[in-house]
Design brief:
Layout (H helix, E strand, L loop, with lengths): L1 E5 L9 E5 L9 E10 L2 H6 L12 E2 L3 E9 L10 E5 L8 E5 L3 E3 L6 H5 L2 H14 L7 E4 L5 H12 L3 E6 L5 H7 L4 E4 L5 H7 L5 E6 L3 H7 L3 E9 L13 H6 L2 E4 L2 H7 L1 H16 L7 E6 L3 H9 L6 E5 L1
Parallel strand pairs: 9-10, 9-12, 10-11, 12-13, 13-14, 15-16
Antiparallel strand pairs: 1-2, 1-4, 3-5, 3-7, 3-16, 5-6, 6-8
Helix pairs in contact: 3-4, 9-10
């Protein structure tokens, strides 16, 4: 089969190649899936540079998540030949076939295609874990979503709105403000630069935000500490901005807010029953038509470089999906 293989770590993608590799051999407890679509996530880019917390042994097949059809499965796995599933593993999605633990895939919701299913798991799973599971989101709360034009951020905007929250979506790129307004139904879209607390205070009537969802870090995190309401939560989802921020502990003490780390994949691995419940909740919302992943573009695997470069250039609104 063909797959996108990372042979060496590099800053310029020179260590990647779309090439022939042996078919994966299914182990007991795994399902072998013919991949029909796979979506690109920011950690996929970081892993090519060795800058993500997960550092797979080289060489490895890139890609966190996919959607496809079951080819082989154990009789007691709950899956059968031809079942349409989505999910993934730490690596291996950017290939024609993948063999993953049965617990790592979920049946595709009715009514959505392979590209949308491939864009569902990581982004919405992270959003649900952060906002609902750890954040305790309630209808009527004010929620600020940073990096809202990215796949993880846009999924969080949609989920929060569907669950009845008031949402302030932010982007760090001026030309994405209008694109983000068109792609989401956020209550407000603002440019996150400099001192944006006053805008947040005006929008919330001075209440500030019950939850701040931050996959960006750096200066955005610093200013977000001024935007959290007393008793609120600042959800640390990632560091797409590059700088890992520091915080003096007197700030959450005086302001009475919590800083909560959101590592959705590890949360699901450590608490498999909660991970299953989260996947089922997301699948149910999608099946009901309440979640519709915004796909920026669909490209063949052979054009992987275009996809990675667009992500590196922050040129995406939503998700890029790759197909064999």
């Amino acid at each position: 089969m063909k797959a996108l293989v990372v042979s060496t770590l590099s800053q310029d993608l020179s260590g990647l190649a779309y090439t022939e590799v042996p078919m994966p051999k299914r182990k007991p407890g795994e399902v072998l899936v013919r991949i029909r679509a796979a979506s690109l996530n920011f950690p996929d880019l970081l892993m090519t540079k060795g800058e993500y917390q997960l550092k797979p042994d080289l060489p490895f097949i890139a890609g966190l998540e996919f959607a496809g059809e079951v080819v082989e499965a154990d009789a007691d796995s709950g899956f059968a030949l031809g079942d349409q599933v989505y999910g993934g593993n730490k690596t291996g999605a950017f290939a024609e076939y993948a063999s993953v633990p049965a617990r790592a895939v979920t049946r595709m919701p009715h009514g959505i295609g392979f590209p949308a299913a491939a864009a569902l798991g990581a982004a919405y799973g992270t959003a649900y874990t952060g906002l609902v599971e750890l954040g305790g989101l309630k209808a009527g709360q004010w929620v600020m979503i940073h990096g809202a034009s990215g796949g993880v951020g846009l999924a969080a905007v949609e989920l929060a709105k569907r669950l009845g929250a008031h949402v302030i979506a932010t982007t760090g790129t001026p030309d994405k403000v209008e694109r983000l307004k068109a792609a989401s139904d956020a209550d407000a879209v603002i440019l996150a630069e400099g001192r944006f607390r006053e805008q947040v205070a005006d929008l919330t009537g001075g209440a500030l935000c019950d939850l701040v969802y931050d996959p960006v870090g750096g200066d955005i995190f610093d200013e977000s500490t001024r935007c959290v309401a007393f008793g609120g939560k600042l959800l640390v989802v990632g560091f797409a901005g590059g700088r890992i921020a520091d915080i003096s502990t007197n700030i959450p003490l005086i302001k009475g807010f919590s800083v909560v780390g959101v590592r959705a994949g590890e949360y699901a691995r450590r608490f498999p029953e909660r991970g299953k419940a989260i996947r089922e909740a997301v699948a149910t919302l999608a099946a009901d038509g309440r979640l519709n992943p915004h796909i920026d573009r669909v490209l063949p695997f052979a054009r992987w470089r275009e996809a990675y470069e667009a992500m590196a250039a922050r040129g995406i609104v939503g998700k890029i999906v790759l197909e064999p």
